[in-house]
Design brief:
mainly beta, four-stranded antiparallel beta sheet, 82 residues, single chain
């Protein structure tokens, strides 16, 4: 069993959480939208599929680079394409 982290790449505010706790996710599915300090909307995705173990932020939360947004229990097999 592998656990992955979804981290914030920037300073900003969580505008949207597109997944629910314990939801199944797929590679490159949009998980979060963060509005950066400059007003840009950053889409947060991950290159793994699996199940959300816990969401660490909610809409309206302020984030910083490296902050954990979610923990993922990764699948043992690859589901995407090249």
């Amino acid at each position: 069993m592998y656990f992955g982290l979804v981290l914030s790449p920037c300073y900003g505010k969580v505008e949207r959480v597109s997944v629910k706790d314990e939801a199944r996710i797929y590679e490159w599915e949009p998980l979060f939208m963060i509005k950066t300090e400059t007003g840009y909307l950053e889409t947060i995705q991950t290159g793994v599929s699996g199940k959300i173990e816990s969401l660490e932020v909610q809409e309206g939360d302020e984030v910083i680079p490296g902050m954990v947004l979610a923990y993922i229990k990764e699948d043992m097999f690859v589901t995407g394409s090249d």
